[in-house]
Design brief:
The complex is a heterodimer of chains A (431) and B (269). Chain A is mainly α and 431 residues long. Chain A contains 16 helices and four strands. Chain A is 73% helix and 3% strand. In chain A, the strands form two sheets. Chain A has a two-stranded antiparallel sheet. In chain A, strands 3-4 form a two-stranded antiparallel ribbon. Chain B has 269 residues and is of the alpha/beta class. In chain B, the strands form two sheets. Chain B has a six-stranded mixed sheet, sandwiched between helices. A four-stranded antiparallel sheet of chain B has the order 2-1-4-5. The radius of gyration of chain B is 19 Å and the shape is globular. The N and C termini of chain B lie far apart (49 Å). Classes of the chains: A mainly alpha (431), B alpha/beta (269).
């Protein structure tokens, strides 16, 4: 066996260069392609959500720590950043506005260092409970200390302060976008590099089997604690960027609902692969900004999608992508595409039925005052008409039944193919 | 830790690699280990045998720090290790394997082994160097993979290995860090006869020059592998001697060994 085989990481590896180069190019080009102000808003939010979801996944995916309180670190990072911004404005803090997110990062790391030693003593349930408790504690504090948290109105700031740096004032949103893009690229790079270090690998080992880690010389609590602080640092940077982006930080930003959103979207993107949370971050902004435009019942859809993913694809989207790429690599996709077609067709019937029912229920419960009619996919449903209800319910039930039939067939085929691939891998190993 | 200052002999001053002094362990009111005494020389291979429930695995859990003692002392190269946590004991050069394979499931075979060499090579919690650049760690991991004959399975996730391969990886993780004292808890449990004999050969190879303590049920393995046998009955070491002497020991035969040997012979062993 040649020695070179284990050098998975080569500093000037072409494939890697292309991936990272492509990522940088995408960040640079995106606002030139999508020029509307809505697009710029979406892109800016995607930038810091990527950092936040990746930092969250350092705990969830890399370290096996289910945190219900990540908003504590993004939120406190955001508050410290907005205060820093105001100090810059008052002339008491000589700092470039572009470095304000670093203040947020340091704040996140400091808070994580303070609270983390207790939190990381145990993994699993204990860890989850403590993060939940700390989250509630910090939110309660946000109401108790209005000087720092700004009470109901929050703290606002002005990012156009200090001397322009090479003409950059951060007045126009595009300048803020590029600042976010730079942070996004650098932080993503750093977090990826971390997964290639001894510490990063031991964090995976702690996730897989904390007990054994203690018998190969490592203190699992120290591993978790370091991960917790580093995750807090990047979360704080993400929070700092939100402060610069919106120029206001409210108590909501440390609320449990925010933590829940980080968890939900990181999970949807997929915690098992490094790039999973990036997908999750993109989805989160699309859902929050665009889906909420399409339908007022968007939170219901989000919850349903989450449930369906937990049941059918617990590895998230990234895992689905990787599994299918593996099937393609072994040349077995031909046997699946028909099933995929069936899945897509039946799923869309099911979704249309479900959406019709949801829209009508939502209308009936919350908007009955605005008339009985609901416009839905080019047709008009009437919440007073039994036909509308029956038709919607019928589409939903038939769609679900057909989907389930196709899915079972697909699951059998899929299982068979995965088994073949595993056997093939073993054969190669034995050869 | 402060315990080490209690010891009167330095790490080179003791002739015993592992020393158990009146070790006791209670779970609730039940005393499982009742004053176990054992002195294992540097480089000796010791098999611990005894009927089910004698406390063999518990004894290993006490030595490796998984459980705390109720009373007594355990010394490693003359230095007290009772009261220390597993990772502190591991850093002092004692490694153990588990009866049920205890691996890093999602990591590849190679990563499993590399994780196990990192601490001993001083890489600890390092997050500012790339694993790929740590040539000593990678070379050592490759070397161990060859020793346990899993070099061709290096990229397969540990959960996807066959049972026998998982047992081999279990041993690999245990010896990878270069510990001078190795505890193997039923390394051949659940293996077929042919696998067992191959595996014993493997254990012999990977533990050359080390002090070895192993719990074993298969008498053929015990008499083939061990320099000395410790017989544990109801939490006490009732005999500790060469295989021949233990076989002839009337007390041992009465307590345990005779009946078991008779069984095995009757079973066409």
């Amino acid at each position: 066996m040649s020695k070179a085989q284990y050098f998975h990481y080569k500093p000037f590896n072409l494939g890697r260069l292309m991936v990272w180069g492509g990522f940088a190019l995408l960040l640079i080009v995106a606002p030139l392609v999508f020029k509307s102000s809505l697009a710029l808003t979406v892109l800016s939010q995607m930038g810091y959500m990527i950092i936040i979801c990746l930092s969250y996944n350092m705990l969830l995916g890399q370290g096996g720590m289910l945190s219900f309180g990540h908003a504590v670190y993004t939120g406190l990072g955001a508050f410290l950043s907005i205060h820093a911004l105001n100090f810059i404005g008052a002339g008491t803090l000589p700092l470039l506005v572009s470095l304000v997110p670093v203040v947020g990062g340091l704040a996140g790391a400091a808070v994580a260092a303070l609270l983390g030693w207790v939190t990381t003593k145990k993994a699993a349930n204990t860890f989850a409970m403590i993060t939940l408790g700390v989250g509630e504690l910090v939110f309660a504090m946000s109401l108790m200390f209005p000087e720092f948290f700004g009470g109901e109105g929050g703290i606002s700031g002005n990012r156009v302060v200090g001397k322009p740096f090479f003409g950059i004032t951060f007045g126009p949103q595009i300048q803020v976008y590029y600042l976010i893009a730079v942070y996004c690229f650098v932080c993503t790079g750093l977090m990826f590099m971390l997964t290639r270090t001894p510490f990063g690998r031991m964090l995976n080992a702690v996730r897989d089997n904390p007990e054994r880690v203690e018998f190969i010389g490592y203190n699992t609590q120290v591993v978790r604690y370091i991960a917790f602080i580093i995750a807090g640092f990047f979360a704080g940077i993400g929070g700092g960027l939100t402060a610069l982006n919106f120029e206001i930080v409210t108590a909501e930003s440390v609320h449990a609902a925010r933590s829940g959103a980080y968890l939900l979207f990181t999970f949807l993107g997929g915690a098992l692969f490094f790039f999973g949370p990036i997908i999750g971050a993109l989805l989160s902004v699309l859902a929050l900004v665009l889906l909420s435009e399409v339908t007022k019942a968007w939170l219901i859809y989000l919850g349903l999608v989450f449930m369906v993913m937990v049941m059918y694809a617990p590895g998230g989207i990234s895992s689905l992508v990787m599994m299918n790429l593996r099937v393609v690599a072994f040349g077995k996709m031909r046997r699946l595409w028909l099933s995929y077609l069936g899945l897509a067709a039946t799923l869309s019937v099911w979704v249309v039925g479900a959406a019709a029912v949801i829209e009508m229920v939502y209308h009936l419960q919350l908007e009955a005052g605005s008339g009985d009619e609901v416009r839905f996919l080019g047709t008009v449903l009437n919440i007073q008409s039994a036909n509308s209800w029956l038709a919607s319910a019928a589409v939903f039930v038939v769609g679900f039944a057909l989907f389930e039939l196709v899915r079972r067939r697909f699951a059998r085929e899929w299982g068979g193919i995965q088994e073949e691939i595993e056997q093939e891998l073993h054969r190669r190993g034995n050869a | 830790m402060s315990q080490s200052s209690v010891s009167t002999l330095g790490s080179t001053g003791s002739e015993w690699a592992v020393e158990l002094d009146d070790v006791r362990k209670r779970f609730g009111k039940t005393e499982i280990i009742r004053g176990a005494k054992l002195q294992v020389k540097e480089g000796e291979r010791v098999a611990i045998i005894g009927p089910n429930g004698a406390g063999k695995s518990t004894l290993f859990n006490l030595i490796s720090g998984r459980f705390g003692l109720s009373s007594g002392q355990i010394r490693l190269h003359g230095e007290r290790i009772d009261g220390l946590r597993p990772f502190e004991i591991s850093r002092r050069g004692l490694a153990r394997s588990f009866q049920v394979s205890n691996l890093f499931g999602k990591l590849s075979v190679f990563e499993n082994i590399r994780c196990a060499v990192l601490w001993s090579l001083g890489y600890r919690y390092v997050f500012w160097r790339f694993l790929a650049d740590l040539h000593d760690a990678n070379d050592r991991a490759e070397e161990v993979l060859k020793m346990i004959k899993l070099d061709k399975k290096r990229d397969i996730a540990a959960v996807n290995l066959t049972y026998a391969e998982q047992r081999a990886l279990e041993i690999g993780i245990t010896i990878a860090g270069g510990a001078s004292v190795v505890l193997l808890d039923e390394p051949t449990a659940g293996m077929s006869k042919s696998e067992t004999s191959r595996f014993i050969q493997l254990i012999r190879e990977v533990t050359v020059g080390k002090t070895l303590l192993t719990v074993e049920h298969d008498m053929g393995v015990v008499f083939g592998l061990a320099d000395k046998i410790a017989v544990l009955v109801y939490g006490e070491v009732i005999a500790f001697d060469t295989p021949e002497a233990v076989r002839a020991n009337a007390r041992v035969q009465e307590a345990y060994l005779g009946s078991m040997l008779a069984d095995q012979q009757a079973g066409g062993h």
